[in-house]
Amino acid sequence: MADLAIIIPRHVAQHRTRETADGIPPVAATRFRLRNIAREYVAEFKLVAPLPAEELTRHATNVLARAGGEEAWRDFVAVLLNNEMWRDTVAAVPYNRRLLLLPKCLRNEADCKGYFDEFGLVCQQCGACAIRDLQEEAEKLGYAVMVAEGSQIVTSLLQAGRIDAILGVSCLNVLRKAYPYMEAGAIPGLAIPLLQDDCQNTTVDMDWVWEYITLSSDDQTHRLDLGALRHEVESWFTRESIETLVGPAEGETEVIARDWLAKGGKRWRPFLTVAVFQALRDDPEAPIPPEVCRAALAIECFHKASLIHDDIEDNDSERYGERTLHAAYGVPVALNIGDLLIGEGYRLLATSQFDEAQKARMLRIAAEGQRQLCQGQGSELNWDCVPRPLSSLEVLEIFQKKTAPAFEVALKLGALCACAHNEALRGQASYQVPHPVAPGKTNPEKDTQPGCYEKLAPVLKQFSAALGVAYQIRDDLADWAAHFNGNGLAKLRPSLVLAIAHERARGDAKRLLDGLWRRQSDVDVSPTQLMALCADLEAGNRAQTLLDTFREEAIRALSGLDNTSLKGLLRRAIGKIFNELEIKGWCKEFQAARVAAQNTQAPT
Fold first, then answer.
1. Is the CB of residue 144 less than 8 Å from the CB of residue 163?
2. Domain boundaries, the chain
3. pTM recorded for the entire structure
4. pLDDT (tens digit, 9 = 90+) per residue, 464-473?
5. What is the pLDDT of residues 188-210, one digit of tens each?
6. Of 465, 549, 557, whose CA–CA distance to 2 is shortest?
7. Which CATH class is domain 236-426+445-578?
8. Residue 519: left (phi > 0), alpha (psi -120 to 50), or beta?
9. Half-sphere exposure of 411 (CA within 13 A, CB side)
10. What is the largest CA-CA distance in the chain?
11. Cβ 218 vs Cβ 565: under 8 Å
């Protein structure tokens, strides 16, 4: 876990925010909730594709009744139902037998460098929109990719037997008109509706597109309910569950430590440990072993200890809507509790049932992560002693050191637990290969023999570095102003938004931000004025672009994984953390019809 100099990944298209069309639920959480309900409905009634349009509509009406959704969303829900019926079929189709069909209206019309030929848009990889990244990653997997309104070339590919399934992105109007042809031909397909229907600069749920692009039956976790897994992990952090896992508390100090451990938090780090274990284990349907639960508990011990120390160093008085530990008990007690939790984390790893070599490796990974985290916090504390303007790169380096190591430790411990678990499992006389392969062949999807960790570690490191920075940028965007609001200069912390604003500012604005960074007492600016200044400099927009850039870098890092289950699960975890065909010339027809209607209604 050597020190990493921060490198800005390849630029990604700036996220566009637009209102959704009338037939699309406006909130992403609602769209994904409807998809989950549709999935449960298909499983309950054992629906099998293809269904006639009338029958599909009837089922969509039933799903809306269950969900309490609006009638205007019926076509959207019909798409969800059709997807769930075809999901497993498409998952079994090799990538090189699939077609990804993207609409040209996803492009940024003002900045697009592409041109059109007889087949559609020829992307010039300018990065002004999402098409480049989607096309590039899909083609790496083996997809045929078209950016077009479809028609003859799609039909010819199907008739020639070149493709067996279609993954399409389009507006509801086109999907509605395409359905009879897909249904009549029993063509396996998954569709992701565009969020707008005006055929220009449209947007789409990118997490959904990425999930479907990487969907594979080799991924034994693609039906794993990550929400349920997260709830299970959260259930381990009650006082009663902790006692069940590690025994009764010894004295008042340990009671305080466990109460703090059980307090609020997102539990992403222990969740990732367990998720990686589930993806790599040979028996994912079996209960999670207690040793893995204890490893996840150790991860949270390290994290909660760091929060105690951070709160002391930042002189914060509130966390989780309650008083911080040092505010409640005093600094000496809080420091001791933090140290106790660090020791408890190492004890849980050192006393696990894994063999000595495996335990030594786990302890080394945890120790290296602790060292990196302290270096990141040290950089911030050194700035606190002599405050000065930091560049955006310097802030990103602090972000990486403070956050990425914890994700890396969580992921690597999950991988080590799985490798150790599988090795023990394979040593049992009753063991059966879960995914047999032909003689003379190897199965990289379940390659968790000794040495598997060495293959995974570099990818998990790269993934963690990008994920950690993106995670910290998100937090910075959410609360950088809150650190200043009502707290004055003393609470100001290194912020990417403020670093970008300082780099972009000129004249009086530059001098004001310089004084703010240096905590000069004569700086006279309110939180509202500061936010307005940063908005004028588009500092938040640039920070959001960097968040998207590092998030996409984490996705790209997964291309180095051979294990489909782990790759698919981590891809879905990113969406969870950051809260993700025969097409005629209907786009042009629909657009022309809209224009004609507008002209008809226009006053004369």
1. yes
2. 28-222+580-596, 236-426+445-578
3. 0.73
4. 999 999 999 9
5. 899 999 999 887 888 888 888 88
6. 465
7. mainly alpha
8. left
9. 25
10. 86
11. yes
